[in-house]
Amino acid sequence: MHLAGIDEKRLVRLAERAQRFTPRVSLAPPDGLLLEVRGSLHLFAGVAGLRAALTQECLHLQVQPVLAFAPTPLAALIAARAGESLEVLQSAQLTGRLAPLPLSALRWPQDTLARLQRMGVRTIGAVLRLPRAGFARRFGAAQLAMLDALTGRTPDVRAAFRARARFRRRRDLDCELQSHALLLAALTPLFTELGAFLRARQCGVVELECRLTHRQAAVTCCVLRLAAPFSDAQRLSELLGTQLSTLQLPAPVRACELRAVTLVPHMPGPAALWQPGEHGGGASCETHGFIERLRAHLGPEAVHGLTLLAGHRPESTWAVTGPPPAAPGRRAAHEPAPEFSATALRRPLWLLRTPRRLCVREGLPRWRGPLRLVSEPERIETGWWDGGEIARDYYTALDMHGVRLWVFRERAAPHGWFLHGVFG
């Protein structure tokens, strides 16, 4: 079909609506839509019934269509672009019906059309009668291949349109609710639909939004962010219920809605035979379930992860991130173990937010008593290019209780000593 004056957004919306007629829909931008309807004709009382239904869908989006039916997708598209409501179901009749159509419907380059017109070739039938070898030499193999696809001489394979998967369900309540328990019960049918929706598409969600509508107040939004893709509707309901219980509703709720805009491929793994920690039983699923429960109770910003950054300044080699993604399964035997540099192994797990100045006696640092330096100095001198220059000599030290500390001495006067970290 040809859709004059349609924009990209409405073309995609029409493609989504057209999937109720056939699952084989293809976009032909900027103004065309192709549907493989041979198997759907008997469901709509033939071509006439399908034409009427398609026209109604187009008019619903305020688009005036030109519909054409042909054995090849390119023939139907070109006929529609030429304004011809073609209806050809047999391949033997196709060339004869295409012959009178203007050559401009092919949308070839303007110089190619001009050369053909100077030769007296102005219709598709006339160009089809030209010698194939001579036409390819003069006008290129691409135009000849298009003519072959037009008449069915070669197959015309089109990429199928895939609508963006998203979930959105709304429920209007019979009476206004303010109890969190009753609200969660009202959301149960929506969670049931969500679970079926995710199972059918083998997808999971990493973010779920619940919108609560009030009569005289702004919409209350509750966003559940997950540490790993999840598709279990009951578990999602429990987590969202925990987070909802922390909200202070400004007014009674008259409608509720669930939204999952971003879906990710997800296949739940098989249950392990062993419990976590037994005979190599993994704990990744339990870890992410624990993270999700913490975030539901304490808020999405209360739990975070850490990531390493490239650099030498200790306070600038890490950053706060979201919770880590789902961990893969156990490492295969042939997969090499992660490598750590000797420098990374000398770093303490706990760094102070701000280095703490130490007392000094006879040139040596003190922290709850004298410190004993047990390592060679590690010099870190960097950061002159961004205003955060440091020049330090780091040591591993032991205090009087045997606690290993990470201390440094400034290389610039007055050569102060500082505590920067504590080893585990």
Question: Could you name the key traits of this structure?
Answer:
424 residues; 19 strands; Dna Ligase, domain 1; alpha+beta; 3 domains; 6-stranded antiparallel sheet; elongated
Question: How would you describe this protein?
Answer:
Helix content is 30%, strand content 25%. The protein has 424 residues and is an alpha+beta fold. The protein folds into three domains: 2-151, no CATH class; 167-265, DNA polymerase, Y-family, little finger domain (Dna Ligase, domain 1, 2-Layer Sandwich); 343-422, no CATH class. The strands form six sheets. Strands 12, 15, 16, 17, 18 and 19 form a six-stranded antiparallel beta sheet that branches. The N and C termini lie far apart (70 Å).
The average pLDDT score comes to 85
Separate helix tally: 12
Distance between the termini: 70 Å
What share of the residues does DSSP label as strand, in percent? 25-35%
Domain module tally: 3
Briefly, what is this?
The protein is of the alpha+beta class and 424 residues long. It has helices spanning 8-18, 46-60, 73-81, 94-98, 110-118, 124-128, 132-139, 141-151, 180-201, 233-244, 284-298, 342-345; strands at residues 2-3, 25-28, 32-35, 65-66, 167-177, 203-214, 220-230, 253-260, 263-265, 305-308, 318-321, 350-357, 359-361, 364-366, 372-373, 378-382, 390-398, 404-410, 417-422.
